[in-house]
Amino acid sequence: MKILVTGGTTFVSRYTAEYFVKKGHSVTVINRGSRKQPEGVTFINCDRTQPGNMLRGMKFDAVFDITAYSEEHVRSLLDSGIEFGDYIFVSSSAVYPETNPQPFTEDQKCGYNSVWRDYGINKLKAEEYLISVFPGAYILRPPYFYGIYENLYREAFVFDCAVQNRKFYIPGNGDMKLQFFNTADLCKFIEIILEKRPERHIFNVGNKDTVTVKEWVKLCYRIAGKEAEFVSVDKNITARDYFCFYDYEYVLDVSAQSELLPDTIPLEKGLKEEFEWYRKNPDSIYFRKAYTDFIDNNLK
């Protein structure tokens, strides 16, 4: 297939581009050229919001839109003169208001989420515009991605704490649930969609099983060869000052995905792969937040 991947240089989009290259497809990426390009791709150097004539008349079997965060991002791509067969948009579970009953299902009403704020609303507007112009598009709503090429300071923060023999400061008793999805499973599911073309066009995607914060941290420490020792932090202290997730619990119903992809990568296996990759690529985090500084200056 001829595939266009938006982005292609960081985390999910980079993994996706490389995955489909390895599968033997012809992959083109579009980005601003600020970082190293994946091997084996064709590179289009431009801002997706101002493509000019760079894409006009180009034909692709499928577009994997990994980096659309607003209606403008989708609109500019669709107005670029590009021709394509399938369009798969990686949206977000942030489109569900936190007031919805959980687990969130695909048929629930979407809207403003006070935790994710503009990020969620902009993703929703991108979805709505895409469907209005191209009803055959597929929309995927993930929870938290993880895996190699991670560029956010999440698992890496816990790995750093473990390697440095630090105690781990945890919101409350650490029973908040987290739900993850490995980037490799995302690519497998995209392949399934293109092969089977399901009637459903909106899917929650993610692991069926959730994990508590404390379980997740213990697992990360164990993978790093250490045992976690916890310090409980009062809920009145903003979690994002010292912890790598919002103090916000939500769970997605992924039963529709599971009918097509019944097995996902076990969390421990995926985290081991990420840890080994991070050890060799410690500079992969583009936004390394000063959690430990806040802990040392305010919580000890």
Give a structural overview:
With about 300 residues, the chain is α/β, with parallel strands linked by helices. The protein has 2 domains: about 1-145 and about 180-205, 3-Layer(aba) Sandwich (Rossmann fold); about 150-175 and about 210-250 and about 260-300, UDP-galactose 4-epimerase, domain 1 (Alpha-Beta Complex). It is about 35% helix and about 20% strand. The protein has 9 helices and 13 strands. Strands 3-2-1-4-5-6-11 form a 7-stranded parallel β-sheet. It has a two-stranded parallel sheet with strand order 7-10. A two-stranded parallel ribbon has the order 8-13. α1 (about 10-20) packs across α5, α2 packs parallel to α3 and α4 packs across α6 (about 215-225). The protein is globular, with a radius of gyration of 20 Å. The mean pLDDT is about 95.
Short description:
With 300 residues, the protein is α/β, with parallel strands linked by helices. The chain is 33% helix and 18% strand.
Question: Main attributes?
Answer:
globular; Rossmann fold; 2 domains; alpha/beta; UDP-galactose 4-epimerase, domain 1; seven-stranded parallel β-sheet; 18% strand; 9 helices; 300 residues
